[in-house]
Automatic annotation (TrEMBL):
Record protein name field: Citrate synthase
InterPro entries documented for this protein: Citrate_synth-like_lrg_a-sub (IPR016142), Citrate_synth-like_sm_a-sub (IPR016143), Citrate_synthase (IPR002020), Citrate_synthase_AS (IPR019810), Citrate_synthase_bac-typ (IPR024176), Citrate_synthase_sf (IPR036969), Citrate_synthase_typ-I (IPR010953)
Organism this protein belongs to: Aequorivita echinoideorum
Family: Belongs to the citrate synthase family.
A molecular function GO annotation: citrate synthase activity
Pathway the protein acts in: Carbohydrate metabolism; tricarboxylic acid cycle; isocitrate from oxaloacetate: step 1/2
Keyword Acetylation: no
Keywords (A to Z) from UniProt: Acyltransferase, Transferase, Tricarboxylic acid cycle
Catalytic activity, as annotated: oxaloacetate + acetyl-CoA + H2O = citrate + CoA + H(+)
Length: 391
């Protein structure tokens, strides 16, 4: 007690006890509430996983129906929020827009802030689960100049999101089961990942009792960075750049290994996984399946596979235990579904929403203290103020 230890990036510091997600980086294991990610990705729906992460158990059909009904009942977004969205230029990055809109929701839902009881927490949770997909779809539609409206309450949670995103003014959209299934799987794979940068942000902002929506808004901002969720956009941009450059993967590998070059192989490496990322394995297979079922041949997928093979045989990457992570193949799926590259990270945010909520709820229910890291001061000793004319 009293001794401050230094651990930049919290590489070896546990910030909390959590019963939500188990991760073994050496063995490549990821479990939500004890269920393996492989089994959930194959058998569960995203909404079931939301319930599981937040409340700790898989829902019965009745519990799931009630949860979905409560979410649908809260999916409307105040018309004035459209005016806030309208104020953004079309070129604004969707992550900045989403973070701002999520924060703005507080003004329209002030009762969502002071939530001490489980009942009040539940109300705030179904509100954001209802409104966030609408905000995500609207952010995308605004970029394309499409009308902003709602989906169809008779559809499932993910089906409805697909409709809200892609519905043309004529009402047509690609509602193929392959699209919905692929998205459902991707959202499940992104749903939680214990104390990563954005989740820790949500917990630390929430620890000041600032309220769920602003905590999530901060989490979205943290996710935006290219070293975190923004990597899925950066991966496709990198693969496109390799393609444009003539497809010489070796040249880019050499850049990534050059310590004088800031370039990193995006979609490679992970703070915790030092063997393989189990999510990447599932996504790689899903990317193959989606492209095949949609009859798409994508040169970028071939470049990605070539790059992966080379990196896995290269001593630089092998020695540092750098493997493809979840973001390496997810962009290829998003692209084949017609989702533009700037929307990749918002898709990650939609997937991570239940994880952030579950972690925030756990933190509040356990009455965790305010997050307040210490530091080791390395600045000047006491100095006297120097008047302006003497400086
Ligand atoms: N390309 C080239 N070298 C790398 C890479 C990479 N992608 N990742 C790590 N290294 C090197 C790094 O230069 C260092 O080398 P050395 O020991 O010679 O100095 C060593 O590997 C260890 O790297 P680190 O930066 O200390 O590791 P970290 O745990 O702090 O960072 C990471 C983890 C994910 C930020 C990093 O691997 C990275 O920047 N990867 C690329 C971005 C990316 O794909 N991010 C998505 C992560 S998964 C999803 C998510 O979190 O949202």
């Amino acid at each position: 007690k009293g001794v401050v230890t230094l651990d930049p990036g919290y590489k070896n510091t546990g910030a909390c006890e959590s019963a939500i997600t188990f991760l073994d980086g050496e063995k490549g294991i990821l479990r939500y509430r004890g269920y393996s990610i492989e089994e959930l990705a194959e058998k569960a729906t995203f909404l079931e996983v939301c319930y599981l992460l937040i409340f700790g158990e898989l829902p019965t059909q009745q519990q799931l129906n009630k949860f979905h009904t409560d979410i649908k009942g809260q999916s409307h977004v105040d018309e004035d929020v459209k005016r806030i969205l309208d104020g953004f230029p079309k070129s604004a990055h969707p992550m900045g827009v989403l973070s701002s809109l999520t924060s703005a929701l507080v003004a329209f839902n002030p009762s969502s802030v002071n939530v001490d009881s489980e009942e009040d927490m539940y109300k705030a949770i179904v509100k954001i689960l209802g409104k966030f997909p609408v905000l995500t779809a609207w952010t995308y539609r605004k970029r394309l100049g499409l009308p902003l409206d709602y989906g169809d309450d008779n559809l499932g949670y993910v089906d409805n999101f697909v409709k809200m995103m892609f519905k043309k003014p004529s009402g047509e959209y690609n509602s193929k089961q392959t699209v919905v299934d692929a998205l459902d799987k991707l959202l499940i794979l992104h749903a939680d990942h214990e104390q990563n940068c954005s989740t820790s942000t949500v917990r630390i902002v929430g620890s000041s009792h600032a309220g769920l929506f602003v905590s999530l808004s901060a989490g979205i901002a943290a996710l935006w960075g290219p070293l975190h969720g923004g990597a899925n956009q950066a991966v496709i941009e990198m693969l496109e750049a390799i393609k444009e450059d003539g497809g010489d993967t070796k040249k880019f590998m050499a850049k990534a290994k050059d310590k004088d070059d800031p370039f990193r192989l995006m979609g490679f490496g992970h703070r915790v996984y030092k063997n393989f990322d189990p999510r990447a394995k599932i996504i790689k297979k899903a990317a193959d399946d989606v492209l095949e079922s949609m009859g798409i041949e994508d040169q970028v997928l071939d470049i990605a596979k070539g790059l992966e093979k080379e990196a896995l045989e290269d001593s630089y990457f092998v020695d540092r235990k750098l493997y493809p992570n979840v973001d390496f193949y997810s962009g290829i799926i998003y692209r084949s579904l017609g989702i533009p590259v700037e929307m990749f990270t918002p898709m990650f945010a939609l997937g991570r929403l239940p994880g952030w909520i579950a972690q925030w709820r756990e933190m509040r229910l356990k009455k965790e203290p305010i997050g307040r890291p210490r530091q080791i001061y390395v600045g000047e000793n006491l100095r006297s103020y120097v008047p302006m004319e003497e400086r």
